[in-house]
Amino acid sequence: MILRGGTVGPMLAVCLLAVGCKAKELGAHVSPTQATQVDPTWITATRNCWPDLSKAHKDKFIANSLADPIAFRGAFAGFASYSDAQVESIAAHNVGDSPDPDTSSLRNANAPLLTRTQALAPPATRTANAPDTHDAAQIPPDTLCAIHPGTPVGFR
Questions:
Q1: 78-91 burial string, b = 16+ CB within 10 Å, else e?
Q2: Fewer CB within 10 Å, N side or C side of the chain?
Q3: Measured between alpha carbons, how far is 55 from 25 in angstroms, rounded to an integer?
Q4: Over 50: is that where the pLDDT of 5 sits?
Q5: pLDDT, tens digit, for every residue of 39-94?
Q6: Is the CB of residue 46 less than 8 Å from the CB of residue 38?
């Protein structure tokens, strides 16, 4: 589509001023707010829940991504119902101090599940909950994530 007569400048200005027009990356909107700090325990948990991140990304990349509430929720679906402000507060504190995540999104996971304690343990020393134990009664309330391949939605 070709625009004529100087309409691109005003349209761009309107877009830049509009709420929610910050960016789209990897198919996910970027939140207009960001956490000012990400506790290092979240970086460790992210690396253990998403092992492919360890192969190609540094801690700073992971921290910058987790600062965005949308990307944080992409990595930890158990916090999907929390507001941006709540997620920013959760990200700034130790994983162990976070509220219990909603484990309902993990019921159909085809991968091993990690509790908060397991997500902070070195991979060689932890034992994940096997995929066949995912009925709702057997998922511990502090289960943080399933072990996923790839990169969480919203990481940039």
A1: bbeebebeebbebb
A2: N
A3: 21
A4: no
A5: 999 999 999 999 988 777 899 999 999 999 999 999 999 999 999 999 999 999 99
A6: no
Residues in the chain: 156
Strands (E), the chain: 24-25, 28-29, 113-115, 143-146
20 Ramachandran zone, left/alpha/beta (phi>0; psi -120 to 50): left
Q: Helices 40-49 & 59-66, crossing angle to 10 degrees?
A: 100
Percent over 90 (pLDDT), the chain: 46
Task: List CB contacts of 37: < 8 A, sequence separation 6 or more.
Answer: 91, 92
